[in-house]
Amino acid sequence: MQKIFLRTYHEYDLEDVKEHLLIMGDLSADCSKCRAIGIEAAGIKNCPQCGTEFRYVTSRRIEAHAGERFQIVKRMRDKYPGLVFIDFGDYQRTLGAQKARDFFG
Ligand SMILES: [Zn+2]
What we know:
Helices cover 36% and strands 12% of the residues. It has helices at 14-19, 61-64, 69-79, 88-104, and strands at 21-24, 29-31, 56-59, 84-85. It has one domain (15-104). It has a 4-stranded mixed beta sheet with strand order 2-1-3-4. The protein has 105 residues and is α/β, with parallel strands linked by helices. The termini are far apart. Bound molecules: zinc ion (ZN). Zinc ion (ZN) binds at residues 31, 33-34, 36, 47, 49-50, 52.
Protein backbone atom coordinates (compact mmCIF):
# COMPACT_ATOMS: atom_id res chain seq x y z
CA MET A 1 0.00 0.00 0.00
CA GLN A 2 1.39 3.35 -0.99
CA LYS A 3 0.41 6.30 1.18
CA ILE A 4 0.38 9.70 -0.42
CA PHE A 5 -0.73 13.20 0.52
CA LEU A 6 -3.53 14.77 -1.49
CA ARG A 7 -4.93 18.20 -0.84
CA THR A 8 -8.57 18.06 0.11
CA TYR A 9 -11.08 20.70 1.16
CA HIS A 10 -13.12 20.64 4.30
CA GLU A 11 -15.32 23.25 5.95
CA TYR A 12 -13.96 24.79 9.16
CA ASP A 13 -15.10 27.44 11.61
CA LEU A 14 -12.59 30.27 11.17
CA GLU A 15 -12.90 31.31 14.83
CA ASP A 16 -12.19 27.75 15.97
CA VAL A 17 -9.11 27.53 13.73
CA LYS A 18 -7.86 30.92 14.97
CA GLU A 19 -8.24 29.81 18.59
CA HIS A 20 -6.39 26.51 18.23
CA LEU A 21 -3.76 27.03 15.54
CA LEU A 22 -0.03 26.50 15.94
CA ILE A 23 1.88 28.41 13.26
CA MET A 24 5.31 26.96 12.55
CA GLY A 25 8.13 29.20 11.42
CA ASP A 26 11.58 27.97 10.46
CA LEU A 27 12.71 27.11 13.98
CA SER A 28 9.96 27.89 16.43
CA ALA A 29 6.22 28.43 16.38
CA ASP A 30 3.62 31.08 17.20
CA CYS A 31 0.25 30.74 18.90
CA SER A 32 -2.49 32.11 16.69
CA LYS A 33 -4.73 32.86 19.67
CA CYS A 34 -2.48 34.97 21.93
CA ARG A 35 0.30 35.63 19.38
CA ALA A 36 2.98 34.24 21.69
CA ILE A 37 6.10 33.84 19.56
CA GLY A 38 9.16 31.64 19.76
CA ILE A 39 7.32 28.62 21.12
CA GLU A 40 9.57 25.57 21.29
CA ALA A 41 7.03 23.33 19.66
CA ALA A 42 8.33 19.76 19.74
CA GLY A 43 5.52 17.61 21.05
CA ILE A 44 3.58 20.59 22.34
CA LYS A 45 -0.15 20.24 23.04
CA ASN A 46 -1.02 23.54 24.68
CA CYS A 47 0.26 27.11 24.38
CA PRO A 48 2.71 27.82 27.24
CA GLN A 49 1.36 31.39 27.47
CA CYS A 50 -2.44 31.21 27.09
CA GLY A 51 -2.98 27.48 27.55
CA THR A 52 -5.10 27.00 24.44
CA GLU A 53 -5.16 23.47 23.11
CA PHE A 54 -3.60 23.18 19.67
CA ARG A 55 -5.80 21.26 17.21
CA TYR A 56 -4.46 22.63 13.94
CA VAL A 57 -0.98 23.26 12.65
CA THR A 58 0.29 25.21 9.67
CA SER A 59 3.68 26.26 8.34
CA ARG A 60 4.73 29.62 6.93
CA ARG A 61 7.29 27.80 4.79
CA ILE A 62 4.62 26.25 2.63
CA GLU A 63 3.98 29.49 0.74
CA ALA A 64 7.62 30.27 -0.03
CA HIS A 65 8.61 26.64 -0.66
CA ALA A 66 5.67 25.26 -2.58
CA GLY A 67 7.87 22.53 -4.07
CA GLU A 68 8.50 21.16 -0.56
CA ARG A 69 4.80 21.22 0.29
CA PHE A 70 4.38 17.51 0.92
CA GLN A 71 7.69 17.11 2.79
CA ILE A 72 6.56 19.91 5.11
CA VAL A 73 3.16 18.28 5.62
CA LYS A 74 4.80 14.92 6.32
CA ARG A 75 7.18 16.49 8.88
CA MET A 76 4.24 18.15 10.63
CA ARG A 77 2.24 14.92 10.59
CA ASP A 78 5.19 13.02 12.12
CA LYS A 79 5.81 15.71 14.75
CA TYR A 80 2.17 16.45 15.60
CA PRO A 81 0.17 13.36 14.65
CA GLY A 82 -3.04 14.58 16.29
CA LEU A 83 -3.16 17.99 14.59
CA VAL A 84 -4.93 18.82 11.35
CA PHE A 85 -2.64 20.49 8.82
CA ILE A 86 -4.11 23.74 7.50
CA ASP A 87 -2.82 25.38 4.32
CA PHE A 88 -1.19 28.65 5.38
CA GLY A 89 -2.12 30.50 2.19
CA ASP A 90 -5.79 29.54 2.49
CA TYR A 91 -5.82 30.60 6.13
CA GLN A 92 -4.07 33.92 5.51
CA ARG A 93 -6.34 34.84 2.60
CA THR A 94 -9.50 34.01 4.56
CA LEU A 95 -8.27 35.94 7.58
CA GLY A 96 -7.38 38.92 5.38
CA ALA A 97 -10.83 38.87 3.79
CA GLN A 98 -12.47 38.74 7.23
CA LYS A 99 -10.37 41.66 8.50
CA ALA A 100 -11.31 43.71 5.43
CA ARG A 101 -14.99 42.91 5.99
CA ASP A 102 -14.76 43.89 9.66
CA PHE A 103 -12.97 47.11 8.76
CA PHE A 104 -15.15 48.24 5.87
CA GLY A 105 -18.37 46.43 6.66
ZN1 LIG B 1 -1.33 31.21 23.17
